[in-house]
Amino acid sequence: MTVQRALLVLLFVVALASCASDPQMKDTAMLAQGQGVMVARLAIPYLAQSGHLKTTISVASLNDGSDAGTPIELRNAETFLVIPLPAGTYRWKDFHIGSYNDPLGGGPMHFDIAAGKINYVGDITVVMALDPSYQTGAPISQVGMPRYTVNFRIYDYHKVFLPRIAATYPELWGSHPVVVSLTTPPDFRLY
User: Whose CA is closest to 71, among 96, 40, 38, 46?
Assistant: First the structure.
């Protein structure tokens, strides 16, 4: 094996290790009365960089307007969410990176949680890019702070990612049916 090939294998192993699942609930067959489980995958390549800013996303209930718990801190480039929620309709809300806040209010970004079921609500990819009009290399006093565009996309990759989550939650998966609960159009893009 050449040195280049060995380095590529090592890089691949490190990348896989950084994509570890960060479960939000313990593996259990028990759900509270009227509760379902929200399952989603969030991919944010920005978080693979060292020294990234604190990044969070929130979920809000459309039934009563309340937040569905505290903001979820995202620490890895890939995060699997497995969160018990009361049955109802929800939406993605408030995406934060450092002091940047996007209320994610535009578009049909809602999803339904059915009681007693595991509800896959999508594969969410957030891509940030430096605004092409920004002049890199120039002093900030001349060009101002860098501006970024943020693309929030929702895909349906349940056939790829649900088996990975099922391996982490065998009791939950063995006790409850799984439904694909995408109320957002396929390949929906915000921004």
Answer: 96
Phi and psi angles of residue 64, each rounded to the nearest 5 degrees, phi first: -130, 5
Helix (H, G, I), strand (E, B) or coil at 113: strand
- List pLDDT tens digits, range 82-117: 999 999 998 888 777 777 676 665 556 788 999 999
pTM, two decimal places: 0.74
Secondary structure tally for the chain: helices H, strands E:
4, 11
Single out the residue of 30, 21, 2, 38 nearest to residue 179, CA to CA. Answer: 38
State how far the Cα of 35 lies from the Cα of 173, in Å rounded to an integer: 15
Taking CA atoms, 99 is separated from 8, 30, 56, 91, 160, in Å, by 35, 38, 11, 22, 33
Residue found by looking up tokens 């970024």 in the block: 148
Q: CA–CA separation, 186 vs 154, rounded Å?
A: 7
Amino acid sitting at position 77: A
For 43, half-sphere exposure in the C-beta direction (CA atoms, 13 angstrom radius) is: 11
Q: Which helix (H) or strand (E) holds 157?
A: none
